[in-house]
Structures are given as C-alpha cells and as structure tokens.
Specification:
The complex is a heterodimer of chains A (228) and B (224).
Chain A: H1 9-12, E1 21-24, H2 34-43, E2 48-51, H3 62-67, E3 71-76, H4 90-97, E4 102-105, H5 108-120, E5 125-127, E6 141-144, E7 147-152, E8 157-167, E9 173-174, H6 183-189, E10 190-200, E11 220-223
Parallel strand pairs in A: 1-2, 1-8, 2-3, 3-4, 8-10, 10-11
Antiparallel strand pairs in A: 5-7, 6-7, 8-9
Helix pairs in contact in A: 5-6
Chain B: H1 9-18, E1 25-28, E2 47-50, E3 54-59, E4 78-86, H2 89-97, E5 103-106, E6 110-112, E7 117-118, H3 134-140, E8 143-147, E9 159-160, E10 175-177, E11 181-184, E12 192-197, H4 202-207, E13 214-222
Parallel strand pairs in B: 1-2, 1-5, 5-8, 6-9, 8-10, 12-13
Antiparallel strand pairs in B: 2-3, 3-4, 6-7, 10-11, 11-12
Classes of the chains: A alpha/beta (228), B alpha/beta (224).
C-alpha cells in the first residue's frame, strides 16, 4: 500500500540534514508552509540554503530560521521588504548587512524555470531574462538569431516544503486560488517534497483532472487543520 | 511661473489606459502602474495578469471580505473576474517571458534613448538586490510601456542617453508615458514625442530630457 501521510509535523520534517537545500513555497502570505518551517526550528537542521521567492514574510517562519542562525544562504527573487512600514524581511536585512548570510538574487521566472529544469531532467538553458544586466555578469551568454541569452543552470533541492488545501494518501495535491504559486515546481525539483495540507481526503475523492501536483512528485503529506 | 502644468498620476494612468486595446492581456507593474486598473475603459475587456499566476484580476470587493489567497505582485488583496484562471509559477512566467502578454506597464528610475530600462536597483552600496519578476516582464512582453515622472525628485532627467542605474533589460522599452509627454522609443536611438502637455514646447521638454528628442508635426496636446 502506498501511504505518504505522516502523523506529525516532526515526522514530516525529519531527515533534513545540515547543509541541505530547502525549497519553501509561498508568494506573499499565500501558500507559505509556516507550520513545517516552525517544526524545522525544533528539528535543528542548520547551515541551510533556502530557496523562496522572498527572504522572509513577517516575523514567523523563515525570519525565525534566519534569526536562529540556521540559514547560510538565501536564493530568492525579492529580498527587500516591499512595504517598509510592515517589513517582511527585516531579520534577513539585518543579517545580510552584518555579512552573516549570503544572497543569490535570481529573476523570479528564471528561478521557477531553474527548478523546472532540475525536476524535468533538463540541463542548463538559455533565457533572454537578465541579458545585458548586472545579474548576467559572470554567466555564459550567447546571441542566437539576434536575441541575447543568458545560460542558467538547473536548481535542484534536497527538500521542498509546500502548502496545499487537500491531499490524498498518494500525495496528489490541490491548492486553493493563488496558493499554488511555486508549489508544483518545487515538489518536482526536490528529492523529498513535503506538503502540509488543510485536509487529507480518501483516495479517489480528488477528481483526477483537478489534481494540480500529481503524487509522484510528493513524498510526505501532513494534515494541518489550523495552520499558523 | 510656467505656462504648463504637470499631469497627475491619475491623468497619466488614464492616458495609458486609453492606449490599451480591447481584449489585451496586460501586466501592470508594482507602484504607479497599478493605478491604471482604475482607469481602464468600461467598454473594453482587458485581462489583467499577476505574476503569482492570476489571469483575470480585479480590485478586491470594497470593504471585504479579503481572501488571503487572492493577492497581486505587491501582496495586496485582489479579486477575480468571471473567466479568471489561476496557474503555477512556471506557466505564469511562460506568459510573461514567452511573448503572450500584449502589454506590460512598468515604473522606471531611468530609460535610455535605445530603450534600456532601469527600474529594479538604485545601485547604492547599501541596497539589497531584489528584482522580483521585473526582468522577465521586460524581456518577454510584446510591448513594454513605462509610466513615470519626467524628472526625478531632484529635477534630474529620467530619460537619458545611457542609464547610470543597473539595467532591468536592454533595448526593451517601446513607449514612455510621463507627467509631461508621451514618447515612442523605436529602438534606433530616436525618442519621438507623440504628445505633450499644453503650453510646453519641444525645446522646453528637451531641457528636462538628457537625450535628443525628435518632434513630429502631429504631436498631440494634452490638457493637464
């Protein structure tokens, strides 16, 4: 029998090693697996490389991991706080300016497709995004049919933490509205994808054509009825 | 005392909105361009895209309820129109980079005469690099419009011969809407003045622009 459900958040985050690359889903406040991140605080893994669209989303979750000194590097598209009055990544900014954390700034679509390449078995690819800009410095570039391209490399993960609304025991996932964002591609790109979901439903309850992440890309599912 | 007035942000938004055709798929950048959503003509179906996967976005219902899973690139609460769709990031950025969006409107620190765009980083030593989806939009939308003030807060021109700020994209801008003028950027080094506020002359506009402007006889006059 194939059963990917795990009974606790602690079990869901077990095995994340020191030095691991951890992909964390979410865009703004939507789709952030805050409960998994906080379980990882207790689990203790350190020296992590985090892949996330941002470098924090308020005081809970990623900011706590950074504040606890557990993050070596952040790979993200937008590390600044969009709203200075309600800073989303104040902890990151403090650590970054103190030289205590590394940042790799990646255009958002390049980040998504680097993960896609890793998950889809592709090698490096050429993209026009960032050609002629400082983010292309040090990278191989080529002009093909008059268009300038930058060579970008696949971005694989050891673990992915994502948030979805429903799952079954095979790991099929359904997301609510724009909660989906990076979830499907991160599940594809990581060796072990862990989904925290509002509800685990019986096998067969999800209409097959409505499944947004097929279970083959998901290794663990944990139910979290009252997410933080 | 000048003989002309600057356009308000709402007036610039209205000018941009007027130029977006019925049936267009459009991404409005964070900041000033988001104002355009409020000025889209009611008799046109214009479909707004948000980088987090939403196609068919509208303002959130006034007074709520706000749905935490329906937000835009600026992380503001939004609503969905009938016919909206939602996808994940790879597909959403395929729309942006793959030439599927008809128009994107972006803010800018500087635009060069060749259409280089600088809008993501001031290049100050203390600034934290943060690009978001700006480079993907600049690289891939069919038409890139810029909406900005003609000069910065210190009065320095934002339309320049060569950008001094770090680039978002090279040779990507097609048209600039400022609080003084509408300028086409064909990419051959010319900056063609299509419209100006009433009372402003081409030499007057040139004084506030750090790259040579080309005038046309059919230059429109905009009432501020």
């Amino acid at each position: 029998m194939l059963d990917k459900t795990v009974p606790s958040l602690a079990e869901a985050v077990s095995g994340v090693c020191d030095g691991a690359t951890l992909m964390i889903g979410g865009f703004g406040g939507s789709g952030i697996p805050t409960d998994l991140i906080r379980a990882l605080l207790d689990q203790g893994a350190t020296n992590l490389t985090i892949v996330n669209n941002n470098a924090g989303n308020g005081p809970l979750g990623l900011s706590e991991l950074i504040a606890a000194g557990r993050v070596r590097k952040v790979i993200c598209s937008y590390a600044r706080s969009a709203n200075p009055k309600n800073p989303s990544s104040a902890v990151f900014a403090e650590w970054y300016r103190a030289g205590r954390i590394e940042l790799e700034c990646v255009p958002q679509g390049t980040m998504a497709d680097r993960m896609h390449a890793a998950g889809a078995g592709l090698g490096p690819f050429f993209t026009p995004t960032s050609y002629g800009t400082p983010l292309a410095e040090g990278k191989e570039t080529r002009v093909i049919d008059g268009v300038g391209y930058v060579l970008e490399h696949p971005l694989p993960g050891d673990f992915a933490f994502v948030k979805a609304t429903q799952a079954d025991r095979w790991g099929n996932l359904v997301y609510r509205y724009a909660q989906r964002n990076f979830g499907p591609v991160m599940c594809m790109a990581a060796k072990i994808a862990v989904a925290q979901v509002q509800e685990i439903v019986p096998l067969g309850a999800l209409p097959p054509e409505h499944v947004m992440t097929p279970g083959i890309f998901v290794q663990r599912v944990v139910e979290c009825r009252n997410p933080q | 005392m000048t003989a002309w007035n600057k356009l308000t942000r709402a007036q610039i938004a209205e000018l941009v909105a007027r130029d977006i055709p019925d049936g267009a798929y459009v991404n409005l950048g964070i900041g000033m361009p988001t104002l355009i959503a409020q000025h889209l003509p009611a008799d046109r179906e214009i479909i707004l895209h948000s980088e987090n996967g939403i196609l068919g976005m509208t303002n959130a219902p006034e007074g709520g309820p706000h749905d935490p899973d329906i937000i835009n690139a600026g992380k503001e609460f939004m609503g969905l129109v009938p016919g909206a769709s939602i996808t994940e990031h790879v597909t959403s950025f395929a729309m942006m980079r793959g030439g599927h969006l008809d128009v994107t409107v972006l803010g800018a620190f500087q635009v060069s005469r060749l259409g280089d765009l600088a809008n993501w980083d001031t290049g100050e030593p203390n600034s934290i690099p943060a690009v978001g989806g700006a480079m993907d939009l600049a690289a891939g939308a069919k038409q890139v419009f810029v909406m900005m003030e003609h000069v910065d807060r210190k009065g320095a021109p934002k339309i320049v011969t060569e950008c001094t700020y770090p680039l978002t994209g090279a040779r990507v801008v097609d048209r600039i809407y400022t609080d003084l003028a509408i300028i086409d950027v064909p990419g051959d080094g010319r900056l063609i003045v299509r419209a100006m506020v009433e009372g402003l002359t081409l030499p007057g506009l040139q004084k506030m622009t750090a790259a040579p402007l080309t005038g046309v006889d059919a230059c429109q006059r905009i009432a501020a």
